[in-house]
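Running co-folding for manganese (II) ion.
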Amino acid sequence: MYDLTVIIPTFREESTIGTIIAEVDAIFFRNAIRGEILVVDDNSPDRTIDIVRDLKNQKPNLNLVVRQQDHGLSQSVVEGFRQAQSDIFLVMDADLSHPPALIPVMLAEIRAGNDLVIGSRYMEGGGIKKWPLKRRILSMGATFLGRLLFPEIRDPVSGFFAVKKSVVEHAPLRPRGYKILLEVLGKGTWKKEKEIPFEFVDRAIGSSKLKGQTIIEYAGQVIDNARFSWNHHESVVWQEWMKLFKFGVVGLSGIIVNEGLLIYLKEYVHLSLWVSGIIAIELSILSNFIWNDLWTFKSDSRHALPHRWLRLLSFQVVSIGGAAINFVILNVLATQIGIDYRIADLLGILVAFAWNFWVNRRMTWKMGL
Ligand code: GDD
Ligand code: MN
């Protein structure tokens, strides 16, 4: 039994496959990792298969699967999941875009309790070398779509990641296209994930096999994963959207509290409009905080600011910021641009809502930090 299986999908990689196998094996040796290398090839017409077969004679930990049907990168990776002889899988490209030096780091992170470790281009320390502008724009679009599903994850479409077998073992994956990681994130069973920055180096030899059809496939995949979460409420995607929904419900309840208190204090307690207004606003912020703390972000208590009072303080400051945003947008749009003040206010509320949700989520309840 191996500690880890490095899965390398290949199609026409004769120029680099030998090098990547040697580099990965050297990393195994230097770090005392009992690792398997599993090349999953889609019946390449070039010398890829021959080269791997030759190397296999000297390396008992090298295995090769040659697929004949259902050609595709994601399908090949999933085939690798099935054939791998260990409980930890690491997927990487054959064209030297992904640094093998990170293999021990990713393995250590999995052993430290992460279900998934992602080699990330889009975080500090990460990056992309030698990509044409068109490719960069495409990748940014794909990443943005992916983040709609997984706002915590900076690079949900990376091709470089490690995952516990248990995450994908029973997952109803529908592999297609290039973005197998998105499928694993959307349908796998996982809780803890970690991203590690790396610098993607585009292939020096040959060209990317990414085609226009890949983009359409990807859009379909994003929709399919959203639909999947609709039917699987334990999924990470569903949990995330539920937070937004609950935050909205709490916000609406705050309006009722605010308005109710204002009427009560003014009409029955006979306080001035000023005083009634301030008390009503403050108590609705308090009420919103309590509901969000006990309900919306309940599951995230282990990440949150350590003290309820600290969270309240943070929530309070963010709420004031939100009110200021609402106020400024209302005034600028209504008086400077001349938009109907009722519509201007609605826009202000919307932006303030987004601000409140996003900043509280990251700061008050410290999600994704
Ligand atoms: N088995 C198999 N079948 N392997 C394939 C296929 C296929 O149809 N198409 C590509 N591969 C292999 C390549 O041989 C290479 O090892 C790896 O998959 C990546 O292929 P590239 O064509 O070099 O992809 P890329 O550089 O454009 O895309 C990389 O970055 C993307 C993120 O921007 C990959 O890492 C993608 O997975 C990643 O999403
Ligand atoms: Mn590549």
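Result summary
Residues 93, 95, 97, 203, 208 surround manganese (II) ion (ligand 2) (CB under 6 Å).
The first strand starts at residue 4 and ends at 10.
Job closed.
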